């Protein structure tokens, strides 16, 4: 729909060359700061767990390993929607040293109690 120039569209957009366009948006360039999430005791994202392990051990852990350890600890993991259709595929198990690191991160975030 074409509008007169200088007219503000009813949904808050502006006009450019007679056509309605949305307002310009600014995108932040800062990296996310997870320190404010400490008030949410007992919750942590997979990325926060990965960051914790990296900061303390300079080792990378995969989402698969985190999910395996969360499942071992009885935490909710959610459903995997990209499951394979064939049976018998090999799934790598989390090594013991990485399991210890992930458990430490889960303890830090208050998701599990110290053993």
Beta-strand percentage? Answer: 5-15%
Instruction: Tell me the Rg in angstroms.
Output: 23 Å
Residue-averaged pLDDT: 77
Low-confidence parts: none
The number of helical elements comes to 3
Class derived from helix and strand content:
mainly alpha
Which strand order does the major sheet show?
Answer: 1-2
- State the oligomer: single chain
- Main pleated sheet: 2 strands, antiparallel
Give me the count of strands. Answer: 2
User: Whole-Å distance between the termini?
Assistant: 65 Å
CA-based shape: globular
Instruction: Name the helicity range.
Output: 25-40%
Query: How are helices and strands ordered from N to C?
Result: EEHHH
Which secondary structure elements does this structure contain, and how are they paired or packed?
Layout: E1 14-16, E2 19-21, H1 46-57, H2 63-72, H3 96-108
Antiparallel strand pairs: 1-2
Helix pairs in contact: 1-3, 2-3
């Amino acid at each position: 729909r074409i509008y007169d120039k200088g007219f503000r569209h009813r949904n808050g957009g502006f006009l450019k060359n007679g056509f309605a366009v949305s307002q310009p948006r600014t995108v932040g360039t800062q990296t996310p700061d997870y320190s404010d999430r400490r008030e949410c005791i007992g919750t942590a994202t997979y990325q926060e767990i990965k960051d914790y392990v990296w900061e303390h051990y300079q080792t990378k852990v995969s989402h698969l390993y985190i999910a395996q350890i969360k499942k071992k600890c009885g935490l909710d993991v959610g459903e995997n929607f990209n499951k394979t259709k064939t049976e018998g595929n090999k799934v790598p198990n989390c090594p013991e040293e990485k399991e210890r690191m992930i458990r430490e991160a889960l303890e830090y975030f208050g998701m599990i109690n110290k053993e």
